[in-house]
Write the structure tokens for this entry.
Amino acid sequence: MSRLPVLDTDRPPQASAVKIARDKPDLLLTERHDLCPGCGEPLAMRVLLEAIEELDASRMAIGVVGIGCYTAFSPTMDVDSIQALHGRAPSVATGAKRMRPESLVFTLQGDGDMVNEGLQEVIHTAARGESVTCVLLNNGVFGETGGHMTATTVLGQRTKNSLDGRDAAYHGHPILIGDLLAQLGGTAYAARGAVDDAAGVARAKRMLRRAFQTQLRGEGFSFVEILTMCPTGWFIPTPDGPGYLDEVMGTVHVTGELKAGGKLTTTAELIARRGGREAPTA
Amino acid sequence: MRAIESRGTVTIAKQLCKGCELCIPACPPRVLEMSEAHNEQGFPYPELRPGCTGCGACLLVCPDFCFEVFLYREPVAHEVAP
């Protein structure tokens, strides 16, 4: 491989070619951001903004942004946005949607924001069947403040305050937020994706599109959880991020649609479909 | 000499790269390799070798929006050492 020549990639090709993918969505004003190397959140941001573009909803979109690393995108995201207090984005989104019912209102939250700081906000918003889409970027740690355990950290996972791994007896069990929300009557769509490989990124985009379409049809509350890599918070080299996501987080927060077309599928059923590869429970 | 065909190609904004290497295993034909040189930020960056299919997997997994993907209208042959 290394004997093969390095090709010029500084400029578009000289030979006749068609550009089939842009470096960034139009709704992102710049490629530059200060998130860490190997972070999964920019991958989720790409598909979130592309889904809005593809639904031709750019001018009607209102993002309500929580507190976390992803908050760095609110100045460079070319959609109207509101900064919420930590964990309160679903309630702010409720207000925005009720005042502007023609809008596409989404929240952008992390697991620390949604599942720790503001768990009741998202649950009540779902239970009321508010016509908003809550988007959770779940990396299992408080990434912005240095990688501490959150309510979604899986058992055995090392974080800054669970150095020997999360212990159920001492730290309690992780919350599978997608299952909690999916079972509520007000929830019309709930799904869990991951950005650990290209297929996963593409699948996460389809989930976001379905969630937004659910909202635009006025069917009720919609929720998309996207598992994202946080190699800094996980104390691992960046190339190991996708594998860690798949093997550690992904065996507990299993990806798939949890509620679609009125059909409920639990995470336990998703695990069974995968052939019963369950995560350690203690 | 032998020829390797590229059905597609990419541009790489190497100054944006933070050297995470996520694109390297994501590339199905394995035609990306990290550079020995470092960019202005001090990170190595991916370099393209012949054989790209233009599938776009690198772009989907790049957190730093470094890639654009092109599909050649006709495959391009690269002469390489045997």
Summary: Chain A has one domain: 41-273.
